[in-house]
Structure formats: structure tokens, C-alpha cells
Design brief:
The chain is an alpha/beta fold and 267 residues long. The chain has twelve helices and nine strands.
Length: 267
């Protein structure tokens, strides 16, 4: 696995760390995108991984784009030929929202510091967001004279609503952790020293549930972004048929009736 992304296993929990602290963990370079994609796809393929925690090394979650590279055409997503810039975005940063949308393993963002621009959008790609008190957020593309090229205009309104998302994207204003909690961008804010413990606590609650049911529940939640009620009901019925056929379902029902703690195998 690339040193740009560090992956550690703690039983059924995987901790994925963006590992360029000296640059504040930018995610716009192809090497970082390749490394993060490889790490997440590997975890998703392993049913033994029941939940992943994504965080950043050092003081930042992710600074988003690498501004030094952005200033030089040809050294980043930006190319001297606009048509090639379009291709670069599709083959580069835009792979990440599609990747996270396709994942079935739940992902918790443990936001340890600033999540700016594409870094904010990366947090939005995750299923659960927990912030340190030192975390800050900005949908700041407009401040650089560009637009959210990584899907932020689709992601952010679905999390915090159209009006607040419009305010943040059009002003580029910075939110602190308390403001992020108030608008629903994150679900919890904790002191910095407790961030990973809190993320592990939530991850443990997810990991304690039957893995196939968890992954299919996540799939239904994701599909709910765009499906009709009738479509979701049909998909829910199909997935429920699969769930009823698992050994874990029988174990869950049996444990409830026996008043004991269930033991799930992923079968």
C-alpha cells in the first residue's frame, strides 16, 4: 500500500489515514487519488472489514487541492488546453466521489483539523462525520475563482440543505466545528484528544451488527439520494430477501429471544 495512505486494522475496523502532513494532505494529485482508491477498494472487497475510519495525519484532515501545483498549468489537473483539463478532472479527482458512492463498507470521517475545498467534499463523501473541536470547513472554491469540480455541488446540498449549501459555496466562508454541528454537516464534535476514541466508539457500534445487513442498509441509503419511493421499496424487498437468508439473521433473532449477546460471522 502506498505511503501516501496508511491503513491499519483493529479487528473489524480499518483506520485509513491520509499521510502527507507536510502538505496538509491534499487529495488532488493522481498519486494520492490512486492510493486512496486502492486502499478503499481493498477494504470494500473484504467482508471482514465492517467499517472504516478516514482521517488525516498531522494538523489537517485535508487541504483539498495542491495550490502550488494548481498555479502551474500542466503540473496538476489544470492543463494549458481546456479540453484536456476536463479529461484530467474526469480521470483524477472525480474518481473519488464515484468511488465513495459505490463503496458498501461504511466510512466514518474523523475530521481532525481543517477540511477545505475538496477536503470538505471528501468529508461529505463519507457516511458519518465526527469533528474535533479544532476542525474547520470551507467550500472555498469560489475564493480561488473556480467551481467545485469534485461533485461538491451535488454532495453538500444533500447533507445540509440547498440554502445553507448555497451560502457556503457562494461566499466561501469558513465554518468552525460548532457551526458545522449546528447545520448538520457533522453529527458530533469532541475535544481533539477524544476524536479517534469517539470515532472508534461509533465504528464499534456499526461493526457489532451483521455485516451484510449493514452494507445493504448503506446501499439503500445511498440509492435513496436519487431513487423514487417505489424504486427503493422494490430494492428493499430484494435486499430483505437476501437478509432473511443469512445465518446472521437467524443468530440475531435467536439471540434476542434467548436474551443473549449475538455472535455474527458474516454468513
Amino acid at each position: 500500500m502506498s505511503e501516501l495512505v496508511r491503513v491499519e486494522r483493529e479487528g473489524a475496523i480499518a483506520i485509513v489515514t491520509l499521510n502527507q502532513p507536510e502538505k496538509r494532505n491534499p487529495i488532488s494529485g493522481l498519486d494520492m487519488i490512486d492510493a486512496l482508491e486502492a486502499a478503499m477498494q481493498s477494504l470494500d472487497a473484504d467482508i471482514g472489514v465492517r467499517v472504516a475510519i478516514l482521517t488525516g495525519a498531522g494538523s489537517a484532515f485535508s487541504s483539498g487541492g495542491d495550490l502550488k501545483a494548481m498555479a502551474t498549468p500542466g503540473s496538476s489537473l489544470r492543463d494549458a488546453l481546456p479540453a484536456q483539463t476536463r479529461r484530467n478532472y474526469r480521470a483524477g479527482i472525480q474518481r473519488l466521489p464515484l468511488l465513495f458512492e459505490a463503496l458498501e463498507v461504511p466510512v466514518i470521517a474523523a475530521i481532525n483539523g481543517p477540511a477545505i475545498g475538496a477536503g470538505c467534499d471528501l468529508a461529505c463523501m463519507c457516511d458519518v462525520r465526527i469533528a474535533s473541536e479544532s476542525a474547520k470547513f470551507a467550500e472555498s472554491f469560489v475564493k480561488l475563482g473556480i467551481v467545485p469540480g469534485d461533485g461538491g455541488a451535488w454532495l453538500l446540498p444533500r447533507i445540509i440543505g440547498f440554502a445553507k449549501a448555497s451560502e457556503l459555496a457562494l461566499t466561501g466562508d469558513l465554518l468552525d466545528a460548532t457551526e458545522a454541528l449546528a447545520c448538520g454537516l457533522v453529527s458530533r464534535v469532541v475535544p481533539a484528544e477524544r476524536l479517534m476514541d469517539e470515532a472508534r466508539l461509533v465504528a464499534g457500534k456499526i461493526a457489532a451488527n451483521p455485516p451484510h445487513a449493514v452494507r445493504m442498509t448503506k446501499r439503500l441509503l445511498r440509492e435513496g439520494h436519487r431513487a423514487t419511493l417505489a424504486g427503493i421499496l422494490e430494492l428493499s424487498a430484494a435486499m430483505q430477501a437476501l437478509s432473511h437468508a443469512t445465518a446472521d439473521h437467524n443468530e440475531a433473532v435467536g439471540a434476542f429471544l434467548d436474551k443473549r449477546t449475538p455472535s455474527f460471522s458474516g454468513d
